[in-house]
Design a protein that fits this description.
globular; 17% strand; Spore Coat Polysaccharide Biosynthesis Protein SpsA, Chain A; six-stranded mixed sheet; three-stranded parallel sheet; 2 domains; alpha/beta
Length: 281
């Protein structure tokens, strides 16, 4: 659980984790130098439950590096990201582990999502549509590029070994989407039919902030730079392909998929580049 100034919801999020029916787990909290009541809340939970480990940064290193830190601190065979404002049904981890134990070709298993508000009231169901069942890595790659949206699937359970073969989340906006795409290169995704994950949409959620605030949270120590959102994503896909232990012929097919999509998006890519260069003048 990476957290920054999460006092409003972190207790509820931790309650949903300690209540999991699958009990053989560690809960690693990485506090990104919060200056509210987060430290006191998390310290109290760690005192009450030996499975909880609370670690605090001396300074805010940003969302990406804080995620990288929780991965480095974790020791389990499987890994689950747990946002500090979201909620999991008690059997989410157990159901996902059952699938992963049974099918070694699945690298990520997740439950369907329900969006809730700051008070926990249901807003609407959300369809991730990322049950990637094809044995063809090229087909999975095309599907995830077409369907990836709110990246709720990262709140499922994944194989730690596969996760550590990726670049994790890098320091640019939307890098979590690129991580989902890269995971699909390593195996299939399994979507459970039940709605086992509740994502909270509220006024302080990262996804509801303005673009400039998102940049500051993602990498607070960085100097202002041209963001080039689309360019970074397409380059991220190519780097992900290069990292995989796939045959060269398969890598070429995957790179061709990226090339065709970048040609189709050439207008948006050109506008982004021109706009970014103009902003620096």
């Amino acid at each position: 659980m990476p957290v920054y100034n999460g006092e409003r919801f972190v207790g509820q999020a931790l309650d949903s984790l300690v209540a999991q029916t699958f009990t053989d787990l560690e809960i690693v909290i990485s506090d990104n130098a919060s200056d509210d009541g987060t430290a006191a809340i998390c310290t109290e939970y760690a005192r009450r439950d030996a499975r909880i480990r609370y670690v605090r940064s001396a300074r805010n290193v940003g969302l990406a590096k804080n995620f990288q830190r929780v991965v480095a601190l974790s020791t389990g065979h499987y890994f689950k990201l747990a946002n500090a404002d979201d909620l999991c049904s008690p059997d989410l981890v157990a159901r996902c582990v059952e699938v992963l134990d049974r099918d070694p070709e699945v690298v990520l298993c997740y439950g369907k999502t329900t969006l809730i508000d700051g008070e926990g009231r249901t807003l609407r169901p959300y369809e991730d549509r990322l049950g990637l069942v094809s044995s063809s890595v090229t087909e999975r790659f095309r599907q995830v590029l077409d369907r990836v949206g709110l990246v709720n699937v990262l709140q499922g359970v994944m194989r730690a070994e596969a996760l550590r073969r990726t670049a994790l989340i890098e320091s640019y906006l939307g890098a979590d989407m690129v991580l989902v795409v890269e995971l699909a290169l390593h195996g299939r995704f399994h979507e459970l039919p039940e709605r086992l994950f509740r994502r909270r949409i509220h006024d302080q959620a990262f996804s509801t902030r303005v673009h400039e605030d998102q940049q500051a949270l993602w990498e607070p120590q960085a100097r202002r730079r041209i963001e080039l959102y689309l360019w970074r994503h397409y380059l991220g896909y190519l780097r992900a392909i290069a990292r995989t232990p796939l045959p060269s012929t398969t890598k070429l097919r995957l790179a061709a998929v990226v090339a065709r999509r970048s040609i189709a998006a050439r207008g948006a890519l050109a506008r982004e580049l021109v706009g970014g260069l103009g902003a620096r003048r």
